[in-house]
Amino acid sequence: MTACVWINLLDTQTTEDYGYALAGASILIIDDEPGIRHFLYKILLPRVKRVEQAASAAEATQHLDNTHFDLVILDNVMPGKTGLDWIKEQRQIGLYADTIMMTAYADLETAIAALRAGVGDFILKPFRANQLLGAVARTLDRSHLRRDNHLLRHELAAGRVGAFLGKSPQFEEVRTMLARLAPLPTSVLFTGESGTGKEIAARTLHKLSDRADKPFVAINCASFAPDRMMHQLFGVREADGENRIGLLALADGGTLFLDEVAQMPYVLQTALLRVLDDRRVRPVGSEREIPLDLRLLFATNADLDAAVASGQFRADLFHRMNVVNLAMPRLADRSEDIVELAAYFMQQFSKELGMAPLDLDAETLLKMRRYDWPGNVRELRNLIERSVILGMFPSEFAGNSDTSGGEAIESLELVTQRHILHMIDQCDGNRAEAARRLGVSRKTVDRKCAAWGF
């Protein structure tokens, strides 16, 4: 059957009419008749990202060995091997693309066999261009929905992530570096104490990049059982023959963030090293690799240099990860940001919990700024949530709005004095810099210090 039997080759519908998944798709066409291949190619080429053709099952296999396709469209009747037999064979060695089968014989037996083989849809010959595009769009939409559901479940299991807030000089340096790194494909290693916002910084970097509309997948290497982590990351070919795609492949086109990399098992370090070198992933039990287009970001609160020296972490992997090291500052080192962070968390939790917000008066904020915060922003967040639930701050943070602990209420002048002197200390005695951070003139700071006898 040749292409002349089809009609309405170019319809008036646009790519948007079939959903945005179509525009980014990579499709392989398999048919032994040149006319049919050319017909499909002409329909799909202006609407999708890439289209390749194969005249035989053997040629199609070569294409799959070299390139990952989102969708395969194939005829069931081909010389030497039927389309169904080819799909079954490819599923055994690793076929992760969705499939649409073209057939002129839609009998029940063939339909059942196709469903068992994992065929996503049928197109009955002869068909129109809009019928083909509709089937392609439906199949791709289902695939994207499965991926989004999987990623959403993973995201929900990981828990909430806070906002990227702060105006201190230390935090502005981080923002400047993120803006510089955003357009580059470079790997970044985020270091710093637990709770300093490494994942939030990684998400911000992703949003600033040209991958912002693609997936961001965050993985905590300490949260997976070592024997399951390879399956979760790389995917696996199950005993029943089903191919389960891993988080690496699900993040294709976007950004993969690996947190707590120091706790990564050694066998996984070796496998990840190959991913960084080759940008390809081989699911567990599969014979075929999947090419990846990924930006990889890493984070740790451990001393990786010491882990490398002790032999617990591969030196070659460390050097590939550590192209750019972005150190996140401690909350105590940017205490001026506590005011903004505390107000944000107070508003967030009072709304989420349906409870009245507490008053963040000057005395409470001053005590918060003088506290060391060993748990950093995470500790501050937990403190605000707990305080909203209890309806009061702990005694060590209670201010003018809560005097149940019997503390004397200090005057606003004393609070102002402590705040300005604290800022001068933070700036190593540089009053001009302290005035800039406080948002007042240098003369104001000098006048206040003279009045206080400093």
Salient structural properties:
454 residues; Rossmann fold; Arc Repressor Mutant, subunit A; 3 domains; 18 helices; disordered N terminus
Structure notes:
By secondary structure, the protein is of the alpha/beta class. It has 3 domains: 3-148, Response regulator (Rossmann fold, 3-Layer(aba) Sandwich); 160-329, P-loop containing nucleotide triphosphate hydrolases (Rossmann fold); 411-454, Arc Repressor Mutant, subunit A (Orthogonal Bundle). The chain has 18 helices and 14 strands. A 5-stranded parallel beta sheet has the order 2-1-3-4-5, with helices on both faces. A 5-stranded parallel beta sheet has the order 7-10-13-6-14. The chain has a two-stranded antiparallel ribbon with strand order 8-9. Helix 14 (362-370) runs parallel beside helix 16 and helix 16 packs across helix 17.
End-to-end C-alpha gap: 96 Å
CATH superfamily of the largest domain: P-loop containing nucleotide triphosphate hydrolases
Major beta sheet summary: 5 strands, parallel
Q: Provide the β-strand percentage band.
A: 5-15%
Number of DSSP helical runs:
18
